[in-house]
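User: Fold this; tokens only.

Assistant: Input:
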Amino acid sequence: MPLQLFDTLSGQKRPFVPREAGKVGMYVCGMTVYDYCHIGHARVMVAFDVIVRWLAAIGYTVTYVRNITDIDDKIIDRAQQNGETIGELTTRFIAAMHEDADALGCLRPTLEPRATDYIDAMQALIGTLADKGFAYQGKDGDVYYAVDKFPDYGKLSKRKLSDLQAGARVATADDKRAPYDFVLWKAAKPDEPHWASTWGAGRPGWHIECSAMSGCCLGATFDIHGGGHDLQFPHHENEIAQSEGATGQTYANNWLHVGFVNVDGEKMSKSLNNFFTIRDVLARFHPETLRLFILASHYRSPVNFSDTALQEAHASLTRLYQALHNAEQLTTSTASLQASSSVNTFEAQFSRAMCDDFNTSEALGVLFSLAREVNKACQNHDSAQAAALANQLKTLAAPLNILQRAPQEFLQAAIGEAGLSEADIVQAIAERQAAKAAKDYARADQIRQDLHAQGIELADGKDGTTWRRI
């Protein structure tokens, strides 16, 4: 079935038509590497990871570009505060970013350009804009984009230039021609990194980075541009103005934006003390639990982050893994079985959801329906049907990159302050077995109850006793 995308610029859901048949070029705005990634970053990482995986699943070859901003005011300030070089700071947090993304099960981008490697390309782009009358240098040496020279400014965020002018405030010392003009090249300041240029020593503004790097990696026009909802204005708006002003061509054919993450109903903010890094969360919850929490909402909708929401996500994921575990317990066959008509129905439903603007929420609903069918087959001791359904459950979940672990591995995983160790649990089970063998059933029941109180649930089966954390 055809893939439909909601394009932020047009405000419409429409069929996806790549520039080149069978290939997709996608650019996603990445991280400014001066601190650990937070849960808002996690949502963007996971959302576009699933988009890449689904595009590949339906036959596209994807070039996925996600940039790294490794020179910026915040980076300079943080390095000075820490008493370290900018290179030391950015190298450390790039490694941390990769560790977090890997933990969340995200594929590495095809290309991961760093801003400092594209200074020449940025200067060339600024030069083109200056030649075409879109850029000018202020008296203090900064180079600005003349927004009023680009008639379509505001088309992505649906803002009018007249409204921006009316609402703007201009500092007395500001050397911009208009308050809404934005910087392309910053004149060098003492003790800050800088590069030689036509306009004097300096460094690039933030917005010019992505126009230059996307153009170098994907060309003047590419298929999909993505990022967080907060980047629509001014960052993405400014990218359009820069790129289309320079090339005269459409910058990106489709714009995808990931919704905000709120914390207990409020926007995440350090000042509100409700700011959580990915590492904070993964110290207390399984990485796949956080991934499922993110996938449980459509990527464009806002989500509310809370301990309760994560606990519910963990319980939901446990139900899915338990269904796979039940099927494993019923049969030891690993042979690929002929899919029944019901299995094919689930596949069609899942594909329909994912091709509808990557509707992971609806796709997960299909997986839960399928898991219920797995459990029914297990209850009916229909091992062939249970195996076929379980195999389909795991196969369909693959583009979401969930349910790919061995069920027992997930069900027994210890996260954070997990309580009993696996050795303790195994020893308690052995003591319970000994009590049962001695017909001391009261002692056996007490051990079960004690384990349950410490978050361990036992299940007795034909092959012995299994356990999972609850």
